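Retro notes - structure team

What went well: the batch runner handled both jobs without manual restarts.
What didn't: labels got mixed up in the shared folder, which is why I'm recording both outputs here explicitly, each with its sequence directly above its tokens.

Job 1
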Amino acid sequence: MLKKHAQEISEYLSGLMGRSIIITDINGIIIGAPAKERLGEFHPPSLPCIKYKKMSFDDEDAARKFGVWYPGSTFPLFFNNQVIGTAAIAGEPKIVLQFSSLVKSQIESMLREKIYAPSLRTPQSKIDELVRDISTFDPRREDISKLPERAERLGIQLDVPRGVITIFFSNFRGLELEKNPVRLSYKSNSDPIADEIDYGATRTRIIEILREVFSDPQNIIASVSRDKFVIFYKLENYGERDFSVSLSNAKSLSQEIWDKLQDASIETIIGVGHPAQNLYEMPFAYSNAWEVVSIADKLSMPPAVYCFNEMLLEHLLLSVKPHYSLKYLEKKLADSQKDNDTADLVETFSTYCECFFSKQKAAEKLHLHRNTLAYRLAKTEEKFDLSMDNFEEVISFYLVILMKKLGSLGETRY
């Protein structure tokens, strides 16, 4: 991508500055020069500049040793904090020193503008921006009229009942692109600009996939970051149909998305949030759906589709301010961290609770012999001074463990 714009930038700045400004690629090959006969030549001073990521200055003697035409300054060009090539200004070092940094910044700025400016003018980018503003909108303090006006210019009727679905790519990095039809980009050391352009194509393809499932033009589909997407889908006959039917339909469509992305080797956690009846509720519905994703991620749940009504307890615990009395149980957990068996005991105890206190079901789920399970539960009673016959003690300890996993109690993780 640097090669695509290098000649244009070189000719423009050379004419503006009245000095020869050349641009090379990551291998030191000239790809932009006012003297076009130099294109394709090797520029020796560029290699140490790329290697050490530092600006260099060469007088006439140094230039002759390198075998280059003129003395001057050579400096690395960066994009996304990676060196993508170099630029060099001809002239005596004492003279070019004063504006080398300015030219470097100008080239990098022009390059960013040429890469990003086209995408900033697309309708999709305006939808992405609209969704970001909806997510931070506070109906108690802000003027609500501006958002519907902006949405109408995009052909969207905003203030209608909508459900919300959030999509998080849990394996965003390290995918094998040749097996991935949507070409999900990952960080590369070879050409960061090409990676960025690849991601632009990837993002477009993913939105197309989401649009295939939620095809109504009134559905709002947006990218909120490199690995997060959101859908505000229009709810038909909301209030007239059974609420559970609406949720079931949302989960079914979300599963269809999950399957399509899974076929492309993309693992996702998809969260179905509580619907919003109107624009006022949309920011809260948005947060609710992302909380579903966050809970699944914090609890190390496998990539899948999750719905808010399956996580009511977790949502409740996140909204509760921890009482000071809980520090008693929290301290027990903290004091036991140095023991090697703590993690196993906590997992066994939690699973036992989640299996409705059935030792048989818990043993099967943990792939343990029942005697091993009984031994671990007895050791849990001893270590944490609990009685498995005391429901209040058991449930209080379980809730504290869950609150710690959710990050709503302290910062220590076991």
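Job 2
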Amino acid sequence: MRVPLHLAALTLLAAIPTSAPTQETPTEKTAAADVIRRINELERSLALPQLVARLTGARDAHRDAVVARAKELMDKELLAMADDITRHPETGWKEERSVKILTDYLTAHGFDVEPGVAGLKTAFVARYRRGAPGPNLGVIVEYDALRGTSRDFHGDQHSAQGPVGLAAAVAVAEFLTSSKTPGTVTVYGTPAEELASPAAKTVMYNAGVFKGADVLIRSHSSTATQVPGPGFGSCCMNINVIHYTFSGAPAHQLQAWDGRDALMGVIELFNHIDGLRKTLRPEAKVQGIITEGGKAPNVVPDRAVAEFWIRYPDPVYLAQVTERVNDAARGAGLATGTKVRIDVDSSSRNGISVATLNDVAFAYLRMLGATKVEEAPGRPLPYEETGTVATQIPGVGVTVHSSNGGYHTFEMEADALGEVGHHGFLLDAQAMAAVLYHFATDAPYRAAVKREFDALKGLYSDYLAALRNAYPLPSVPEPAGN
């Protein structure tokens, strides 16, 4: 027999973690010390342990019914849907089958679906048709697979994010109607998360798709059950995605001096970047592949292309790293007699991590029986992976232990079909439903979320200003004569 949530909560209240802001690098913590101090003051003023205890520890038959309904939907229908999508992976912009499965289910459960929003063929918005004026509860779902060299696969378990989000959305929507509680639910289908061109959530935000959402929630696979600290951050660091296209002149390889080898330009770019690494801060990551490198070994390639993802925890030093990589590309062109075009494909930036949402979700995960629980708050982590939406609308990403394999591995895909994945997905859905229930029914809680989010948003410019003083460029003199 499952213990009611309010009884399970009584054994956990003393262990509720207190969120502490912890930016990712020592430089951030030092340079932005004043901003971090102000975040600390903000978080203390919110009395988060007491807030979490009030929401999770009280007897609440309505909440328990919503959570139980999310579990029922997962057990009876949606775990099987997640397995089905896992077994039929579709990469970004090709997720037609997965989208049809998700939108057919939403239509059958009282949602009106608008396909192809923001000009993106596999994006959609589903609005609960029986919603009433009140809080607009947003659920983000993803469904794209990873591109593999041997096969495409769900090595990040995006196959489950849709079914998990649907369980929470339907359970809460049904409650709103049955209890005549003001509010509505909107499900946002966001494609191609694993592709950088274009960043779908940013395109959707710029097109006004998220307009009117008061809160957003999503889930994601995880190798542990974690709670992020409040502040500014990104799941995979700030990223610039850049294409370097080298142009040369063709010739027979036996007379290569008659041409200019564009592939050698790309190879020199890789060599130059390797030379740069020792003078970059250790947190910087520069990762690239050659996407075009010629057509025939006996013809000097007159065109070659490389795609690089340049990452750093904050956007200020990222700009410096990016310019140095761009200079490396220009130098590679000069060294090989080729010409290079530099195209910034897309970028991902920091979002805002909100403890009033994170801590409540984490408390429910622990109460519901999450495994591999990491008690200490981690680095700030917003709920979506481009930052744009997470700087404008408060939200939470639920991350419960759902795999013993690493991210982007076949082991993580296999776990999506097994006990560890199913257990994690079930808890994701229940915790998401509980958080949405509280946001819909508890006005003081909504006010606390808004107060924290608005205050953090107001501190972000001060945080960036502090970092601009933390990365001085060295003064390099002209070479002296003999």
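One thing worth noting from job 2: The first strand starts at residue 111 and ends at 115.
We'll revisit the folder naming next retro.
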